[in-house]
Amino acid sequence: MPQLTFLGAARTVTGSKYLLDTGSHRILFDSGLFQGLKELRERNWRDLPVPANTIHTIVLTHAHLDHCGYIPRLVSHGFRGRIFCTPGTADLCRVVLPDAGRLQEEDARYANRKGFSRHAPALPLFTEADAARALTQLQPVGFDRRVGVAPGVEVTFTPVGHLLGAAAVRVQLEGGRTIVFGGDLGRYNRPVLRDPSPIARADVLLIESTYGDRTHEPDDAGARLGDIVRETIGRGGKVIVPAFAIGRVEEVLYWLKRLEEDGSIPAVPVFLDSPMALDALRFYAARANELDDEYHGERNSLARFVTARFQGVTSPEHSKELTASAVPSIVISASGMATGGRVLHHLARALPDARNTALFVGYQAPGTRGRSLVDGQTSVKIHGRHIPVAAQISRIDAMSAHADAAEMVQWLRQLGTPPDITYVVHGEVGAIQALQERVAGELGWRTQAPDYMDQVEI
């Protein structure tokens, strides 16, 4: 009988990995990095319970690093199989994986130069070369097309919003039993991306629970973002926006463009300091047919994201000049949880100054700098230095790309019949429990919350 092992995103948000063993083949659904708390990040360095070269296939739901970022590590350890995903996910993987490898190498070099690593020498988890090899193994498959990924195993990708190319994966096993890996569920009635599509049937379902214990604040058409920008610029400060380079950047730019056009904010310089985000933005523009209907048929959907004084920052030299500049402006940079990348340099410079604002626009995992800042910490450690926090710290959850509890239940209601079992994953313990209670109370479904390394028969 097939067995499913929960290798990540079980009672935590990051590190999505689910290993399906049919007896003859091993298929890994998602292969993500653990992020946040040290005890979680240390799992990235441990070998999986099965050797990488015994995994036959990987199937990806989408291109966020907590779902795809471990693939180069597997490749470096001998994984040689195909990686099935949608074309949009393949596009974004070609951006995020090499960038992740490059950052791993840069961070290791920086730690060795500054001597703040406890390891001598500090090593990258994987390299840019590992990522490049992984990209040669990508096998794009369009939405709503059934494809065989192993003997007796077929998968179909169904769009769920959240990110360009993001999908729920419906797995048809020999004999007719079905498993649905929900991935990360997107939002309803949000700009840029389409609403999540329904799934017809699942015997076994895995559903995320990132925001399983809350309802997002109501959409205010960008009003709060406008207030933050006006107040910060009025103080002569800068708005620093740590944003996930793929997905969140597009919505932030969309709202800044709208607010500027209707006169709600001044036409200040808007800098996108992330080569990866700039590349991803072009993919969004090129795949307008996968976006909201308002983008369809446009010759240049990129214009929807570009403000009057928009500048893309591509070189390290330009980034350093921008960091040093005190000109009132908006700086959008990765990473979204302030765990690495160029945004750390901007934050290190901006946080001690009360004129500035650090604006977080997505989920902040426990143990990340972003979580420490939104929780009110008065000092954070960046590149080995303790940085005092005098800047305003703001957060807007309405821009989250994750469905809230009500939206999750809305999507679940569309299944024709209840699954035999629903595994609630990809959430903190409180969020998991809250969603379990809601699903049981409103739908009457049987749920379980698996632990890390739990194994079940399918």
Question: How would you explain this protein's 3D organization?
Answer:
The chain has 458 residues and is of the alpha/beta class. The protein folds into two domains: 3-214 and 401-457, Ribonuclease Z/Hydroxyacylglutathione hydrolase-like (Metallo-beta-lactamase, Chain A); 223-399, 3-Layer(aba) Sandwich (Rossmann fold), CATH 3.40.50. The protein is built from 13 helices and 22 strands. It has helices at residues 38-41, 65-68, 71-76, 87-114, 128-135, 223-234, 248-261, 275-286, 316-324, 343-350, 369-374, 405-412, 429-443, and strands spanning 3-6, 17-21, 26-31, 57-59, 82-85, 138-140, 147-150, 153-159, 167-173, 178-181, 204-208, 239-242, 270-273, 310-312, 330-333, 357-360, 379-382, 385-388, 392-395, 421-425, 447-448, 455-457. It has a seven-stranded mixed beta sheet with strand order 6-5-4-3-2-1-22. The chain has a seven-stranded mixed beta sheet with strand order 7-8-9-10-11-20-21, covered by helices on one side. Helix 4 runs antiparallel to helix 5 (128-135) and helix 4 packs antiparallel against helix 8 (275-286). The longest helix has 28 residues, at 87-114.
